[in-house]
Amino acid sequence: MAGVFVFFSLFGFVIPGLEDFYRKRLKRATELLNRHMSIGFTIPVVMLCHGEVSDARSIGMIIICFVLTGMFNTIFAYFLAFPIQCLMIRYDKHFWVDRHTDTEKGGENKPPARLRKPDNHDPQPSLRAWALRHPILLLSWLLTLTLGLPLRYCSQYDVPLATFLLSSIWLTTLAIQTTIKTTPHPLHPWVRTLLAGLSNAVLWTSLAMTAYVFTDAAISHRPLPTMLATLQTHTPLSTLLLLHHTTTTTDSAAPAPTMAAGDLAITLLNSGLVAWGFKLYEYRTQLVSRAGLTVCSVSAALALGNVACGPLLASSAALGVAPRSAALAFAARSVTIALANPVMVVLGGDAGLNAAMVVGSGIVYQMGMGFGVGRWLEGRVFDTGTRAQTQTQPREGHGHSAEMAAVTAQQRANDPRVVAAGVTVGVNAAAMGTAYLYEAQSDAAPHAALSMIALGTMTVVFSSIPPLARWVVESVSG
């Protein structure tokens, strides 16, 4: 991700048409990949079935510590980023312009297209029309029934069934959530919001694939570890290409590695993370600013706090999270999985528990933002009540529209509420929350992506300092 961002940023000065090439050729593909990359987070949740089940007290203490550290990170991130950014912009009153007028978006602040009700003369969408709008979904279920099932029960080949079933469930949950948000029905708005938030695609896909694993293991009389091994072989596409190059150059007689459904999902997730470099390039002016300095500062402070204090809180006498590896997993509680694994190796933490906490935090934040908590925080917290001031401002002429749009864009890039919301989501929900912000076309999305990168990088840096790492491990052990 960082490499793509740096490459395009540097070559953008040499090649004037690079940004136009991105917007015309790459932007739509990047947005499509961003919409479906979260399917990769379902696999770590399913793989939790492979670990040993702890006693009820240990599970309860882990959940309590997870909630406490989540509350601390959320409050600390927002209420530290907000005043720092206020100091950065010297509390300019123009940053508190009422949200009902937004020049950058063009005139009045209208609801997003996906939440806007259609005109009254539009016909009610029927089941047939819904099916025609989702041909890939229908094709995926067709392949599951006509190709996946026969291959599974006739030739004992699990990969096609698991792959088609995973994609079918994922597309179905996304379609249901989109239908709830866009289809007009006689439900109260808060009921619609509640249903849309509860129909989280990562949550229900994870539960459905877990049910599939247990059901198939019971039908085929195979142990659960064997069944999980058919879902993920830990060879995503990048690893497969490297292994293929190594085996061809060494003429090894070892069996060729294969990809399973989980590896394809992880490949999609890794590709989406890399493609975020394009999104960072798109919002480069917002990142290379005072807001970017605020994001990096707060993320670094949170990384140090998590590494030094997270395991200590988990292993304290009040909580007593056991074993030691479980307590050390809180050192990278909300660091994206790709960067959390090196931290777990250095400190000796439980990588499975860490992945579960990262995904769990992402799901909680996705559901919370689906309920509108993020928009409420961004629009209401520290609202100085300048609506009357905005209404009394004179309207500018059309000749000033371009200049006003540029000014408004810069204001939005440095708005303390937007920056604080982005940092809060990035350091707590990692890739899942950032993906949700990009899908919602939120102004806080680039700040969330930058904070996610900064938090993960600084967590790896701090955990790699031998005195600090040794002190954390000894403190937890003692």
From TrEMBL:
- Where is this protein found? Membrane
Q: Give the principal location in a single coarse category.
A: membrane
Could you tell me the membrane topology recorded for this protein? Multi-pass membrane protein
For this protein, the record's InterPro entries field holds: CidB/LrgB
Q: Its GO CC terms?
A: membrane
Claim: Transmembrane is one of the keywords in the record: yes
Report keywords, A-Z: Membrane, Transmembrane, Transmembrane helix
* Source taxon at top rank: Eukaryota
* Alphabetized Pfam families for the sequence: LrgB
TM region positions: 34-53, 59-81, 136-153, 159-178, 190-214, 291-314, 353-377, 418-438, 444-465
Q: Identify the stretch(es) annotated as Disordered.
A: 102-122
Q: What is this protein called?
A: LrgB-like protein
> From which organism does this entry originate?
Chaetomidium leptoderma
